[in-house]
Amino acid sequence: MKNKVSETVIKRLPKYHRYLEELIEAGEDRISSQELSNLTGFTASQIRQDLNNFGGFGQQGYGYKVPSLKEEIDNILGIPTVYKCVLIGAGHLGAVISLYKGFAKSGFEIIGIFDKDDKKVGTDIGTNTIRHTRDLADFLDQHPEVQVGILTVPKEGAQEITDILVDKKIKGIWNFAPTDLVTPEEVTVESVRLNDSLLVLSYYLTERLEKEE
């Protein structure tokens, strides 16, 4: 069913998840689509349409049970599953990502960190000791349970690392390298373009400043 759902809808699900989590922490048990609209900024109609893609989960005149709806969205997003990950690139960004506490909460566990800098190899980030990138293939052979690769490397080395991950049957890549990766269709790639996001911010700031002049 999820294959038929638009990417736009899928990208809204984490926002629903985040607000439902906050509602549970606040002790809220029930919420209407209009109340959820007020929180998320999406229209009540859009929220109902989004959730109907996966079965609905609400009752007319009653709304949604917050814990139940969060559990359903958890299941849709695959959060109950624990994905073993490797991170390649132990620079500043890689270190921040590897120490991010939300990883475990979202079902991701980094079990290996790699870098080509000999000065970093052997040092620790959290509970992981940095290994040399040349050992990545052997590590993946020894840990076939790894399903996700996280790339925080320069664009020059990104495709080479990607080829190793693909060869070792990695199923998903979270890509922070500023380049488009070439992968087979069966490998899911989610690219995070920090500079692109900054340029979008720049556009809106420029637009607002022009209106103020």
Mean pLDDT: 90
Name the strands of the widest sheet in spatial order: 5-6-4-3-7-8-9
> Helix proportion of residues, in percent?
40-55%
Element order: H for helix, E for strand: HEHHEHEHHEEEHEHEEH
Strand content: 15-25%
Q: How is this structure best summarized?
A:
With 213 residues, the protein is an alpha/beta fold. It has 9 helices and 9 strands. The protein is 46% helix and 18% strand.
Write structural notes for this entry.
- The chain contains 9 helices and 9 strands.
- With 213 residues, it is of the alpha/beta class.
- The strands form 2 sheets. A 7-stranded mixed sheet has the order 5-6-4-3-7-8-9. A two-stranded antiparallel sheet has the order 1-2.
- It is globular.
- 23% of the residues are buried.
